[in-house]
Amino acid sequence: MLLEVKNLSVQYGHQVVLDDLNFSVNKGDYLNIIGQNGSGKTTLIKILTGLQKPSAGQITHASVIFGYLPQHLRVASKLPVTVYEVLKHSNLVKSPETEIDALLKLMSIEKLKFQKMSSLSGGEQQRVYIIRALLSKPDCLILDEPTSALDPKFRKSFYEYIEKLNDHGMTIIHVTHDLSDGLRHGSKILEIDQSIKFFGTFEQYQLLEHKKGAHIHHV
Amino acid sequence: MFEFLLWPFVIRALIIGIILALSTAMISNFLVSNNQSLIGDGLAHISFTGITIGVLLSDEPTIFALPFAILAAILIKMLMRNKLIEGDTAIGLVSSSAFAIGLIIISKSSGFNRSVESMLVGSMFSSTWIDILLASIVLILVSIFIFKSYSKLISITLDDNYAKFSGIRIAFYDYALAILTATIIVIGVKTIGTLLISAFIIFPAVSSNMLAKSFKQMFVYSLIINVTITLLGIIGSYFLEFPAGSTIIVFHAVLFLGLYTFTKLRGRV
């Protein structure tokens, strides 16, 4: 087991944001966390990434290295910072330049290495942040609505790449509100709305939704 | 033409000018980039009161002003980090309260042996070797901190959430930068002046940002710009018989205006 969440709750005053969540993630899992806006997805991600402490409960994991692609990219747009500087300085452990170059090539943005971040398109910036997440050599990659700034063409190749990483054993935790994104066979679904509404495989979820008469577009 | 260099007070002014220019430029990049430009202004007002108390108690007011300003910097940061009060509001609250206390002390004290005006606009040409020694120690501390923490400070500047996720102790660097800023301000208030020291912290980063194509360039350019403008300002003030601190800031403002206009015009072509 890679990660176990036990009796996790978050409360702001009297407002319950997350209520007694219990689930686990195994090594190599592809877990989609879904839910409407305000369902508590962002809070759950903040807790999983250590950016926020829960009001109650705990998360246990072995020595796992997490990679994180945040939903809201904070590009310091008024600073003359280059792509290379973002990748060189963002992680606690510095990555060798050869590694940065290889990932820039893989994401087809090697020509942008010394460009200012502010001159890049939304999609190009997103690729830089994917590389930033991968440079920490994570066992588990947390993606928080990662394709919001991507054009459809790169969106498809983005998910193909993420699936390839998953095939090579990397655990993926993928937060989305768009069910057409990144749902792959064999993946797991965690649906939350303050508490857990569903936790199981994609196929089980599909069956349940069909029974309800809902239609799910899948990739 | 260079006879003025024979005067020891001019030499001392040039030396302390270079030292302060290097220290302020180094922290300038991180303060301005993190939207904390005004902390310099707030701490300068606090240092004014610190120096006022110091003047009443000793011949070396800096020694008294230093812990006073450092405590105030910690208080401002605590208020800012608790998020109960916005950053600029926290600076305004602490600095104006401290400044008001300073003015009351001056109005109620007899035999105040230092003019308020000299504290407000500074007196670079009356710098002593002790001032230079203190400024050098501060420059060494600032240099060690910046070069040791350069990567982490950039990470925090770019995306503090991601920096926190990466395991960078943001609070430590936040407080350390504020304490170093307070130290530089206390040393600088005497020479540049309470009202002008914050501009000495803001201009280098803002002007170098207009020229730079990377953060590294911005850092290097800010050092070059601040040292050059400071030396020109001191020499200019000697010949024009203007206050040195004010002349430096006016030169900075002229350079900024020139760069701003150039950047805007270039953007249109």
Account of the 3D structure:
The complex is a heterodimer of chains A (219) and B (269). Chain A starts with a strand and ends in a 7-residue tail after the last helix. Chain A is built from 6 helices and 9 strands, in the order βββαββαααβαβββα. Chain A is globular and about 50 Å long. Chain A has 219 residues and is an alpha/beta fold. By secondary structure, chain B is mostly helical. The N and C termini of chain B lie far apart (42 Å).
Structural key phrases:
heterodimer, A: 219 residues, alpha/beta, three-stranded antiparallel β-sheet, 6 helices, 9 strands, B: 269 residues, mainly alpha
Short structural summary:
The complex is a heterodimer of chains A (219) and B (269). Chain A has 219 residues and is of the alpha/beta class. Chain A contains 6 helices and 9 strands.
Write the layout of secondary structure elements.
The complex is a heterodimer of chains A (219) and B (269).
Chain A: E1 3-12, E2 15-25, E3 30-34, H1 41-48, E4 56-61, E5 66-69, H2 83-89, H3 97-106, H4 122-135, E6 140-144, H5 152-167, E7 171-176, E8 188-193, E9 195-201, H6 202-212
Chain B: H1 8-33, H2 37-57, H3 61-81, H4 87-108, H5 116-121, H6 129-158, H7 160-166, H8 170-192, H9 197-211, H10 215-240, H11 244-268
Helix pairs in contact in B: 1-6, 1-8, 1-9, 1-10, 2-3, 2-4, 2-8, 2-9, 3-4, 3-8, 6-7, 6-8, 9-10, 9-11, 10-11
From the spread of the alpha carbons, the general shape of chain B counts as globular
Encode the helix/strand succession of chain A as letters.
EEEHEEHHHEHEEEH
For the sheet with most strands of chain B, the description reads: none
Q: Greatest chain-chain interface?
A: A-B, 27 and 26 residues
Q: Number of helix segments of chain A?
A: 6
Assembly state here?
heterodimer
Number of DSSP E strands of chain B: 0
Strand order of the largest sheet of chain A: 5-6-7-3-8-9
Distance between the terminal alpha carbons of chain B, to the nearest Å?
A: 42 Å
Ends apart, CA distance between termini of chain A? 28 Å
What is the arithmetic mean of pLDDT of chain B?
87
Structural classification of chain B: mainly alpha
